[in-house]
Predict the 3D structure of the following.
Amino acid sequence: MSQNSGKASIVLKEPVYILNSASVVGTKEGQGPLGLLFDKVGEDDMFGCAAWEEAESSLQRDALGLALEKAGLEPEDISFLFAGDLLGQSIATSFGLSSYQIPLFGVYGACSTCGEALLLGAMAIAGGFAERTACVTSSHFASAEKEFRFPLGYGNQRPLSATWTVTGSGAFVLGNEKALQEMRQSGAGHGRAQITGMTVGKIVDYGLKDSMNMGACMAPAAASALERHFIDFDSQPEDYDRIITGDLGKIGQKALIDLMRERGYDISSQHMDCGIEIYDPESQDTHAGGSGCGCSAVTLSAYILKQLEEHNWNKVLFMPTGALLSKTSFNEGKSVPGIAHAVVIERITV
């Protein structure tokens, strides 16, 4: 039986389980509304390293180590690792995870990387190519500012439309039914949630060029992926407890809701954005909210999966969004295309 559904989606014949996960964040994130839920909060954002990029590598190293430990596994128990970050050549990943010596697929979807990694990791298991995979991604405020904008010492002014890159890393260990039962028998846990379907997004470019308003740049891609998902799954917004984007912030959220209304869908009651949830708008000056690969990843691990485990929610659509730009494209006057990938995550019922 084919697992394909519609033009761009997959319905898994057998669910892929999120066996366990971990989140490591910086000090600002630890002071936010979700602060008590993260597995580890750094005492300072250098994490004992000499450079911002090294600090981001340490985030990934710690997050994967914690996720494996919580799942009762060793690196050799993982068939493939799907990981990426925002930096050139994905150096946070290559320097951070090389010591684990797990076969690596490096992925890049900008801030949608968590969704892309989960999608690919689940596909590898559903296709019978692996029993367990791991998915990791990260971002760091200082390394991202250095990579895409200006060094922190420059002190440039940020418009109210700008989002704040989350300092954090999320790691997820995925497994099939056999891996879930083995983990349960070992006493390492019961599994956090199950992935039952996914929709692969496409590049959408509305010609917007404001890199300080990435929420608006990414919202069209989110709308495209979400509409495609509803069509392919023959579903409606009310079929989900939450429809969760990763990085749109306040401006992008409004744009997405408006774009979906134009398509005949009202998602205003179900929509939630990780970038809005992770910071306190009154006590933390982050303007439009949070963004970055780590934003959706740590929120998924610390908060969203917890809601599923505790049966507060039964089914969510997790859809991180990414802005596909670089310093080169921006300086050459190019627009900012976007992409989004959707993953159906449900509470475990077995």
